[in-house]
UniProtKB/TrEMBL annotation:
UniProt xrefs under CDD domains: GT1_Gtf-like
UniProt-listed InterPro entries: UDP-glycosyltransf_plant (IPR050481), UDP_glucos_trans (IPR002213), UDP_glycos_trans_CS (IPR035595)
Catalytic activity, EC: 2.4.1.-
Assigned keywords, A-Z: Glycosyltransferase, Transferase
Organism ancestry: Eukaryota, Viridiplantae, Streptophyta, Embryophyta, Tracheophyta
Protein family (similarity comment): Belongs to the UDP-glycosyltransferase family.
Molecular functions per Gene Ontology: UDP-glucosyltransferase activity
The name this protein goes by in its record: Glycosyltransferase
Cross-referenced SUPFAM superfamilies: UDP-Glycosyltransferase/glycogen phosphorylase
């Protein structure tokens, strides 16, 4: 926070759920941008328990703090007790509950900082219950939505959807039924996030809390999702009688072109490949396949005949309590796969620098779980996608990507027990060799141009950010 010599400097407090790393990363990017424009920025981590997972998340944030510029700091609220009535396996419900348990500590932190110096309180939607804390202390409170504008439109409209849809059907048992939100393509019920049904009352509360806020900040850009943007701005997504807060589209928030001290081996391998010739397969920090699905992917890649980089994590059915260990490739992959593909493919254990890979000229396609951070990285790289959603809002993102933005095609069978090797081979080959794949690649490159324009001087996202920072400074 500001010291005694900097009392006049305005502070923006960003309240983040620490166990959601996919949310924490763009929130930190936002904090960096705010600090770069002359405001103090503090990332507050609430909802922490003293268990290993929360401690690891906190360590990641604290480690990041040392690498960030002056003006950006991190603060960890006191540990809270995990509610006994919250199932240990339900991380969504846990995150909501633990954020609520930290409300009183957040209130004391803001009071100690002097509310008159806090020009804005920015909340992740998992921390939406803190909107009342901001109102109590007279601090303008905003939401930062880390996913798409289309996803925000869907969430704002959720109370209306709920009125029109029974709880049973909302769980995805409605056959061919779809839900319709203004500005979005129809979404099959089975592609809605499971948490919408399992924690429905909490998400309905988030929609209401957003309407009480001073503004909605989104990690996307208007020209990528014009219909959803217009629907929100025109008040079509908020329930009758609710106000629509101002919308600030400031994305993509990504650091591209930052090279580490040690360049990953896969980038050197890519240097030797022809332009747009490599398919990159990566499924996020939590995306893992069982042994049989892993082998189906391997057979499909080999049958496709295409160059590939595949980030492969240890299957859950091989964990034996060691889920963070690297996979044993020889035991996991089909006999002869590594030898048969050594001239065209590279299997990387557990992790690769995804942003740098997708920005590399040799990459011509991306098989992705449709996490929003990954989608934005693909867009900034101008890389078309094969959509293989797995959890959370990824199935809904798949609909937006395929039906709305037209930057992806779906890997059929994602919603079944198994995606077969024939489907993998056919889709990968289609993406890299067909006229349809070339058209998809051209659309992806056009999206990259729009993204770069949005972030440039005078661009829509940069202008929106500067307007927002200007408000906070005043």
């Amino acid at each position: 926070m500001a010291n005694n010599d900097e009392k006049a400097k305005k502070i923006v407090v960003i309240y983040a759920p620490p166990v959601m790393i996919s949310h924490l990363a763009p929130l930190v990017e936002l904090g960096e941008l705010v600090a770069a424009h002359g405001l103090e920025s503090t990332i507050v981590l609430g909802g922490l328990t003293d268990d290993a997972a929360a401690a690891a998340s906190s360590s990641i944030a604290e480690g990041a703090a040392t690498a960030h510029p002056a003006g950006l700091s991190f603060h960890r609220l006191p540990y809270v007790t995990r509610p006994r009535d919250v199932p240990a396996h339900d991380y969504v419900l846990q995150t909501f509950a633990l954020a609520r348990a930290s409300n009183s500590d957040l209130r004391e932190f803001l009071r100690a900082a002097s509310p008159s110096l806090v020009s804005a309180l920015v909340l992740d939607f998992f921390c939406g219950c803190a909107v009342d804390v901001g109102a109590e202390l007279g601090i303008p409170t905003y939401f930062f939505f880390t996913s798409s504008i289309s996803g925000l439109a869907e969430m704002l409209y959720l109370p209306v959807i709920h009125e029109q849809t029974t709880a049973l059907r909302l769980r995805g048992h409605g056959g061919d039924d779809h839900v319709h939100a203004p500005g979005n393509p129809p979404i099959p019920l089975h592609d809605l996030p499971a948490a919408y049904a399992d924690c429905l009352s909490l998400f309905l509360a988030v929609a209401e809390q957003m309407c009480k806020s001073h503004g909605l900040i989104v990690n996307s850009f208007r020209s990528l999702e014009p219909r959803a943007t217009d629907a929100i701005v025109n008040g079509l997504c908020t329930p009758p009688g609710c106000r629509t807060p101002p919308l600030h589209c400031i994305g993509p928030l990504l650091k591209l072109g930052e090279a580490g001290t040690n360049r990953h081996e896969c980038l050197a391998w890519l240097d030797a490949q022809p332009e747009a010739s490599v398919v990159f397969l990566c499924f996020g920090t939590m995306g893992r396949f069982n042994v049989e699905q892993t082998r189906q992917v391997a057979r499909g890649l080999e049958r496709s005949g295409q160059r590939f980089i595949w980030v492969l994590r240890r299957p859950p059915d091989q964990d034996d309590g060691k889920q963070n260990t690297d996979p044993d490739l020889d035991a996991l992959l089909p006999d002869g796969f590594l030898a048969g593909t050594k001239d065209k493919g590279l299997v990387v254990k557990s992790w690769a620098p995804q942003r740098e890979v997708l920005a590399h000229a040799a990459v011509g396609g991306f098989v992705t779980h449709c996490g929003w951070n990954s989608v934005l990285e693909a867009i900034m790289g101008g890389v078309p996608m094969l959509a293989w959603p797995m959890y959370a809002e990824q199935r809904m993102n798949k609909v937006f990507l395929v039906e709305g933005m037209r930057l992806a095609v779906v890997m059929e069978g994602y919603d079944k027990d198994m995606v077969g090797d024939e489907e993998v081979a056919t889709k990968v080959r289609w993406l890299m060799e067909s006229d349809g794949g070339r058209e998809l690649r051209e659309r992806a490159r056009a999206a990259r141009r729009r993204a770069k324009d949005a972030l440039s001087d005078g661009g829509e996202s940069r202008t929106s950010l500067l307007e927002l920072v200007g408000q906070w400074k005043r």
